[in-house]
């Protein structure tokens, strides 16, 4: 529909416009400190905007999706901002900090990630006519989102408190949820976006369901194969690969899906 095209266009213009304007500041200041905060804030602004700028009251599914994404983005954005201030830098940007072209790539990739990931929220906001009551897919989705959100928040909090103890400076975390998964925060992140997709499902026609499914697939793809696990596993192997305790932790602990440690 024309309304859908218009809304997608507005979201894309806002998303990329904001990333590129902030990219200019990041290049001039040679800093990555507000990169993650900008990403999370864009998610928040699009989700809030879809509620604020609609003609009538939001259907319940559109309302739920915007609220879920706003809660997620507020927590993760503030956490990542706090972390980069604490650490003083983000290692991903060691080369990009002084290379404007690479900085532009980082900010543009963030724009693409935001647009595709937030698609279910945009599609439901326009497509849901409010006639379909909440059902099994919606409640399953809300449950997935809740479990994923809690797991990610607990994993981040446990690691932050571990890292805040100077005695752990050169150690790796292996307790709490980190004893059941080597990347529990990423499992939570994937699970919560699968949840968002499931909530969107009942509002959408088949072509739009396919479009919405790109959201959890992109999140999972990035974390499992590109920027998440491969990068962290490499840096962990480099730091602790020679330690028997780390080899033991790797042997016993599931890569991503939380499971009791292997004996």
Summary tags:
263 residues; mainly alpha; 72% helix; 0% strand
Shape: globular
- What is the ordering of alpha helices and beta strands? HHHHHHHHHH
Rg result: 20 Å
- In which range does the helix fraction lie? over 70%
- Biggest beta-sheet profile: none
Secondary structure tally, helices? 10
Distance between the termini: 56 Å
Q: Structural class per helix/strand content?
A: mainly alpha
| Number of beta-strand segments | 0
Strand content: under 5%
Average pLDDT taken over every residue: 93
Q: Detail the poorly predicted runs.
A: none
Task: Describe the protein.
With 263 residues, the chain is mostly helical. It is built from ten helices and no strands. 72% of the residues lie in helices and 0% in strands.
């Amino acid at each position: 529909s024309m309304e859908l095209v218009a809304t997608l266009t507005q979201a894309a213009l806002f998303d990329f416009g904001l990333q590129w304007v902030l990219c200019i500041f990041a290049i001039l200041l040679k800093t990555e400190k507000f990169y993650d905060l900008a990403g999370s804030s864009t998610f928040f602004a699009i989700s809030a905007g879809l509620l604020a700028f609609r003609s009538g009251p939001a259907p319940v599914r559109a309302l739920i999706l915007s609220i879920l994404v706003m809660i997620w983005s507020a927590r993760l954005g503030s956490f990542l901002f706090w972390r980069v201030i604490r650490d003083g830098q983000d290692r991903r940007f060691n080369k990009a900090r002084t290379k404007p072209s690479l900085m532009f790539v980082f900010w543009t990739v963030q724009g693409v990630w935001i647009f595709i990931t937030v698609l279910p929220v945009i599609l439901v906001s326009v497509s849901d006519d409010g006639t379909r009551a909440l059902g099994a897919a919606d409640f399953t989705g809300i449950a997935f989102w809740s479990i994923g959100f809690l797991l990610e928040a607990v994993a981040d909090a446990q690691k932050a408190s571990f890292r805040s103890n100077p005695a752990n400076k050169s150690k790796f975390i292996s307790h709490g949820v980190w004893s059941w998964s080597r990347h529990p925060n990423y499992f939570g992140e994937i699970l919560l976006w699968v949840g968002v997709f499931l909530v969107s499902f009942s509002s959408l026609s088949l072509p739009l369901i396919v479009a919405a499914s790109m959201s959890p697939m992109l999140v999972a793809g990035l974390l499992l194969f590109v920027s998440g696990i491969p990068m962290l596993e490499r840096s962990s192997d480099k730091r602790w690969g020679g330690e028997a305790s780390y080899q033991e932790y790797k042997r016993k602990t599931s890569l991503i899906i939380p499971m009791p440690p292997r004996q």
